[in-house]
Amino acid sequence: MGWAALLALAALAAYHNTFRVPFLFDDIPAIVDNPTIRHLGNLKDVLLTGTSYGVTTSGRPVVNLSLALCYAISGTDVWSYHAFNLLVHVLAATVLFGVVRRTILRGTKHQVPGSKFQGPDTKVQGPGSSVQGPVSRDQGPGKRDQGPGTGDQRPWSMDQDPGITLVAFSVALIWTLHPLQTEAVTYLVQRAESLMGLFYLLTLYCFIRGAETEGRGRGRWFVLGVIACVLGMASKEVMATAPVIVLLYDRTFVSGSFREAWRRHRGLHLALAATWLVLVALVASTGWSRGATVGFNVGVSPWGFWLTQFEAVARYLRLAFWPHPLVFEYGVFTLGWRDAAPYALVVLPLAAATLVALRRRPAAGFLGAWFFAILAPTSVVPGAMQVIVEHRMYLPLAAVIAAVVVGVARAFPRRGLTALAMAALALPLGLLTERRNALYNDDLALWQQTVDESPASARAQVGLGAALHLRNRPREALVHHLIAVGLNPNEASSHYNAGLALTALGQLAAAMPQYREAIRIDPKFCPAHYQLGLALMLTHRLPEAEAEFAEAVRLQPTLAEAHFEWGAALVQGGRLAEAVDKYREALRLKPDFLDAEFALGVALYQLNRAPEAAACFRRALQARPDSAGGHFNLGLALARIGRTEQAMAEYAEAIRLDPAYAMAHYNLGIALGQAGRVAESLNHLREAARLLPEFAGAHCNLGIALVQAGRLPEAVEQYETALRLRPDYAVAHNNLGLAYAMQGRLDEARKQWERALALEPNYEEPRRNLARLDQEQAP
Q: Is the Cβ–Cβ distance between 40 and 67 less than 8 Å?
């Protein structure tokens, strides 16, 4: 536990500045826009439906579940996501420490330097045998500080030789602090890599412990190993190589040969191989292509992709030894034979040396196999979005570091010198990691550095554009999105983001073709359907907007925002009852969707279902009590159901929260006037008329209050103002006629009432007023 605590402290020191790193790039669809992680209790959505939200979670239910756990803790506050990522990294480092330590212990017990590997069950060294290999007579008990590969072949252990623990700890520490790991730890959605790495290491560790254990304990360790393998398969597809690596480890360090490994542990190896069925099912659920981004039908030439992997592997190796410059996004490109040749001259000899070493020097061969095998899935299967990705080195890096650390330990066999050499390696790496993480804190700076290093990467240009867009700099963002479109016209996200920038600039007519092109490239691109629907709705093309929202809902039935906007389009089309259904569905999917709650209340109010509307507004106000509009709407609903005093209280609260809320002043003034509180009514109606000088209704109702106060000349002035603003305002004509009549201006009154009737023939009050006037003027 002490070593694990040291690893945790070192990791915290290097990653202390990551807990406020914002959501980046693929974090947005996978976390911010992923509705399935919002309800941890609905495991079906989390584990199945949720895998369609964002490429990183596609076919990876364990990753989506981990995001749901973080959302349950902190919502969209990033700290819990970063804490989880760091915890996974520390746990993986701790397991790596255990794997390396137990492997060295096993090697020192059962392997003679310079000889062929002899496993524990061979005739030379069987379990329990006292034969430990040839030992020189001049090696006495005082020579206990000799490291691996010296003439002293006595077994190392924590008690007998702490050097083994120091070597294992050094491997784990340097692996933990290496800057190449930042992308898998600090970039939140790349927990897919670190989670897979943890389960990969756990699978191997459980096998090692099981191989060391007798009786029932062995079976328990093996079962745990299979469970870890299943979880890894549900985290990332690279886990496919774990059963092969465990078999190779068995042959190399435990059983001595593949035949013996199969004889002794056949059941375990079959169980681990059976976990491939889980992986196959998950990959099948993505359409065999993880959203058309990976596979042999993604538009990237397989040969071009494979040749590019020579550069990728060579670059990974260089970055392992000299981690600069690190690049967040390399983009998509392919190499020809001539361009790939220099890199192939590095990679192919290493691969050949690994094959030779697997036979002649199995331990070294295992390290090479670990490196190449774990990179193999992402290097063999073409990807349409990325050809070089630094987080792919998360596990392969362990082999490189192990080889270096063992080499250093042999060069400096005294523990003090070994510790000094390890510190000299670990400290600068930790400082570089801390510096790299500081860059992640500013997504704009991160993307600018990425574009500087990889200007031909369309995804880097999109990322920089998105960072500018978030800072309300859409014009600059548009430049980078259009560059991305030029670099890769067949990338749907580039067109989509260009559309977003154009929308922010108010250029809807130019934005819609960009959304349509994104949909043409990827018909299943739900956000493009959604944004196109919004643009169509804003340009009053309601049937087309509804069709786009319907398609967005079909593609992502749990997208509450699409249901909500569909409802808004239906309201604009006058189909209130259908809109109510859409709003209710949005709220079912996202109970804290306050805009949907308010909109539902408004629709119900317009359908004359005031009690239900009031209930909606009350629920919304419980979550947002400082909403002036919410209090105003609740006042409207309460007034309609006859609760006038409560309605006035809500209007007053709206005004307290927003003193310039003109309609709250207006409605409160009317309600006060109806309650006989004329002086208060006048104050609020005057304020409404001041705030809304072009609103004829405010002037008309202020006229009514002035009449009640006996101030007829002022009332006439307000009615005349209302009619100047709105000549067809029948009520104002009628009221002005009444004011004229009260002043004795009967002929002018008659003209106003006649005008009111001409505008609204069924308006009874001016008809009665005219009849009364005719009766009074009759001879």
A: no
